[in-house]
Amino acid sequence: MNSSHADLLFDFMNCKNAQGNFNALFQKIEKINSDTLSRLSKRRRLSDKFFTKAISGLENKIKSSLVLVMWAVANGVPRSALNCPLFDKYHDIIGAPTPPNRHDLQSQYLQELDSLVVKEIKTTLSSCLCVSLSADGWRDRLRRDWLGYHIYAIIDQPDLWKILVINPDLISINSSTTAENIAALIAQSADSFVCFI
Fold first, then answer.
1. Is the pLDDT of residue 197 over 60?
2. Residue 151's CB: how many other CB atoms inside 10 A?
3. How far apart are CA 166 and CA 150, in angstroms?
4. Which of 35, 122, 148, 159 is the most exposed place for a label (fewest CB within 10 A)?
5. Using an 8 Å Cβ cutoff, are 157 and 128 in contact?
6. How much is the mean pLDDT over the chain?
7. Taking the mean position of all CA atoms in its chain, how far away is CA 130?
8. Is 161 left (phi over 0), alpha (psi -120 to 50) or beta?
9. For residue range 48-90, what is the model confidence (pLDDT) as tens digits?
10. CB of 151 closer than 8 Å to CB of 133
């Protein structure tokens, strides 16, 4: 309580020591609770909208596999658990299709999900008047050089400005690459997301 809601704890201790107002504390808690529920409801609507796009036009077998994959990702279920022979046996007993293995996930579902995410990003960026790009280079433990870049955009909403940050690509580069080549790599990758005028 002290780490997450220190101000509420302070007000509660004041009320406990007859130095505060319980009604004011209750109203503050109710407002925080209603704001949280409102944010959750908005996130659920956005999630449902994306989910509806993701499964529209797919067969039930693909839908069920895709839902299972999305559930696993959302809840941090490791792929080893979904690839367990006992889990496959359970599906076999109830007459359900076997869940996708890691090869199916890599060759089919991740590509479909990636294309849906890219489409959603492009739709969001289409309403932005301008964007900003930044890039950063780094080297991993195997001494490979990488270039990551970010797209920043401001989404204009009623009474609110929302800053959107997108990490579209991670580019493998040669350590001797020139600045001109790096600029060309970024422009080539970003061109599918942003149209420069």
1. no
2. 19
3. 6
4. 159
5. no
6. 77
7. 22
8. beta
9. 666 666 666 667 776 777 777 777 777 888 777 777 888 888 8
10. yes
Which amino acid, 147? L
Which amino acid is it at 19? Q
User: φ, ψ for residue 138 (rounded to 5)?
Assistant: -155, 165
Task: Quote the tokens at residue 137.
Answer: 């280079």
- Show the tokens assigned to 21: 């107002």
Helices then strands, counting H and E runs in the chain, come out as: 8, 3
* The two structure tokens encoding residue 83: 């690839």
pLDDT at 113 over 60: yes
> Model-level pTM?
0.43
Which amino acid is residue 77, in one-letter code? V
* Closest CA relative to residue 177, chosen from 114, 118, 135: 135
